[in-house]
Amino acid sequence: MIDIEAVVKGKQVFLTFVYGDLVPKLREQVWERLTRFGLARSEPWFIIGDLNEITGNHEKDGGSLRCATSFIPFNNMIRNSGLLEFPARGNTMSWQGRRGKGKGAVTVRCCLDRALANEEWHTLFPCSYTEYLKMVGSDHRLVAFSEDKFTRKRRGQFRFDKRWLAKRVLWSRL
User: Fold this and answer.
1) Whole-angstrom Cα distance, residue 73 to residue 51?
2) Contact 144/86 with Cβ under 8 angstroms?
3) How does strand 129-132 pair with strand 88-89?
4) What tens digit of pLDDT does each residue of 54-99 get?
5) Residue limits of the Endonuclease/exonuclease/phosphatase domain (predicted)?
6) CATH 3.40.50.1820 for the 2-173 domain, yes or no
7) How far is CA 162 from its chain centroid?
8) How confident is the model over 37-65, as pLDDT tens digits?
9) Which among 56, 65, 66, 73 is positioned nearest to 20, based on CA atoms?
10) E strand or H helix at 124, and its extent?
């Protein structure tokens, strides 16, 4: 975990870059430390990283369902630290792997990578969002943060203009 104090937009802020341990008991130590940070901070605070945890089975596709109690430590850290998710663009299933061997192997996708921030951060950056990029050279998607206004990309409406039917040049290029 890397925790940085910085000045952004003239305000003192905290940026925390997290790697959640693969071992659940060690990961719980990370949640305890983040909870202590959250309880002690009134300044804007931003967290991003591979947290190696999900908030519930709804953030998982494939494989066996997990016991609901296994999500409690992570969800408690988020709630007790006053952290909020960002609006997201892209596929939030940020990790993909195969479990099992042979014909019984199954593909599992989870939202293990994320960004969170406290209310003060969201107030400082009210239009911010995260974007989940394509998987390139890794089994994880990169998560990017943007403070620009979140707008959904939409395709323009297709309009057919029958006047083009009279243009012979168009037909020769089709």
Assistant:
1) 13
2) no
3) parallel
4) 999 999 999 999 999 999 999 999 999 999 999 999 999 999 998 8
5) 19-140
6) no
7) 45
8) 999 999 999 999 999 999 999 999 999 99
9) 73
10) helix 119-124
